[in-house]
Amino acid sequence: MNRPYYFFVLPAVALVALMFLLPLGWLAALSFGLPEGFTLEHYEALAGSSGIRSMLWNTVRLVTITTLVSLVLGYLVAFAMAHLGETQRMLLTLFVLVPFWLSVLARALAWLILLRHNGLVNEALTGAGLIDRPLQLVRNELGVIIGMVHFLIPYAVFPLFAAMMTVDRRLVMAARSVGAVPWRAFIDVYVPVTLPAIFGAGVLVFIFGLGFFVTPAILGGGRVVMLSEYISVSVLQTLRWAQAGALSMVLLVSVIALVWLVARAIGFRRLTGVG
Amino acid sequence: MELSRRALRIVAIGAWIVVLFLLLPGFVTLPVALNDSRFMQLPQETLSLRHFEALLNDSGWHQSFLDSATIALAATVIACSVGTFCALGVWRLGGRVAAVTLVIAMTPMILPPVVGALAMYRLWVQLDLYDTWPGVVLAHSIVALPYVVTTVSTSLAMLDPRLEQAARSVGATPWRAALDVLLPNVRGGVISGAVFAFIISWDEIVVTLFISTRAVYTLPRRMWDGIRENVDPTVAAVAVVLMAMTVIGVAIVMIHSRLRRTRPKS
Prior knowledge:
The structure holds two protein chains of two kinds. Chain A is mostly helical. Chain A contains 14 helices and no strands. The longest helix of chain A is centred in the N-terminal third of the chain and has 34 residues, at 50-83. The mean pLDDT of chain A is 87. Chain B has a single domain, classed as MetI-like (MetI-like fold), CATH 1.10.3720.10. Chain B has helices at 5-33, 50-57, 59-93, 95-110, 113-126, 133-157, 161-169, 174-185, 187-203, 206-211, 219-229, 233-262. Chain B is globular.
């Protein structure tokens, strides 16, 4: 009875399994020294290299800062969308959605135009007499964080907004009726109720941040090198396939572990927006 | 959440500042592309289309535009047909098979782009797909597939399963039922999926960077090299072209879904 429907899903499954997952498995095998013989030397080399250790630490540190900033700003926008009435909600949704879809490359370029040494921000600040010499806003960690936060805010806004729309308004009213001032009701009732969504959105943002390539590569200007760019340099410039393979597996396993964590908490379908 | 008028005003101001921050890059690129000097700056005296003219007169950018457009169209057709049928199958099958299928179909969206790109790079070289038009189309189809599956699945979730059962009970084969009954009903989801697939391919850079060099030279790829080498306003003009395509696409989806919502349900 259901037989024909297996043929419906077959092309997609075959396409992804053969052309995407299979080579991924091959890459994993390569990182363990296969097919010549199983070895952990490539992973030991990663752990032994202080350069790679500090690159990994920098990646995690920058992504953590980015995630926290994106969550706070995203929470603010989501809260406004949930509580400021229909017109503002529509406008805010539209304005969060449009940049969400704009080319990552075009956005990185725009940030470069804005934040460069003689860019628009520096010219405006010098023009206004606020600073004597241009600030270093790009080709450093600050530039990378600005670009990543800009990219990741929408990923935080939508899950938070969805959760806020389901908050039972009577909970806050109950808190108010027993004498809580609005501020306390917000901290003690509203935030804890939306905590699962904050967690979910945070992990989602963190996952995307870990895999970031374009924004750090352009706004970091070679001085701030994060994991993805390091992998690409390993392969495309220094041809260290085994090292790139091992680093890819570190990235892949971290992401899968985090996805599994959120999937356990909120469900895979909700995570990917299906159904 | 009830807040005082003042607190609400503070929230509104804060939210709009964040939104302005989000819109800022979109606002600066167009004026810079329209400035009349050869530097990356805001227009000083007059607006000029010289950087767009430079784009039109440069055979390299021309070729890249053609590459990008044809690749995005082909990848959209593949991702859309494969993805739509996948979503229909998942919807109808249900249970464990559907769950596993869904996880497989979603992996290209969830896993870090660089890792996927690296894996494909090796295979593409083996299969002689490296730096070829079919190779880039195939890679973009895989990257775009999850977005089609997601949008079509979302439309299907709102559909009454009995519709399909009714078609089957009067003798339609699953294929006929899918083509004649289900597809017209999830048209909105398929159109959104197609637009998103097109945008994904049109803007794709990470995978493209690994599986092509110069024989296939897409717009983002040429722009990437332009940004890394020397920044001139032509690149800003390209960025405007890239963004315009996205805005048109998102507008199509939004107008379409609004029309559907305002139309009375028959």
